[in-house]
Design brief:
alpha+beta, 4-stranded antiparallel beta sheet, 37% helix, single chain, globular, 3 helices, 12% strand
């Protein structure tokens, strides 16, 4: 999984999707006809294409990233794959980190003079 990037083209190595920079500096990406992207959005679109090309199974953590990238591109989430409500493990992981983080209280620096 990777993306080859030059000044004028980008190619997703696994999915075969491409992005091409137009004369106006905007990027067109295969799979998104009629849309013009910034350079960063084009990279995100190709990253999304590469992730989808791996064909992750339902419930796989990759779906969290896939739907986050879709949101960055103003695309709706794909059904049933990334909502925290449908991923108790994700909720447990995030809430498990919260108490540990809240227990850490920074201490003032002490001088050794």
């Amino acid at each position: 999984m990777g993306i080859r990037i030059t000044d004028t083209t980008m190619t997703a190595t696994r999915s075969g999707h491409t992005a091409t920079r137009g004369a106006n500096g905007r990027w067109s990406v295969t799979g998104h006809p009629g849309r013009a992207f910034t350079r960063n959005q084009a990279v995100t679109a190709l990253t999304l294409a590469e992730a989808l090309a791996t064909n992750p199974p339902p419930g796989d953590r990759m779906w969290w990233h896939i739907n986050d990238w879709r949101a960055e591109l103003d695309l709706p989430p794909l059904p049933g794959d990334s909502s925290p409500a449908t991923h108790p493990a994700r909720d447990a992981t995030s809430s498990a980190k919260t108490p540990a983080a809240s227990r850490h209280t920074p201490q003032p620096a002490t001088s050794t003079r």
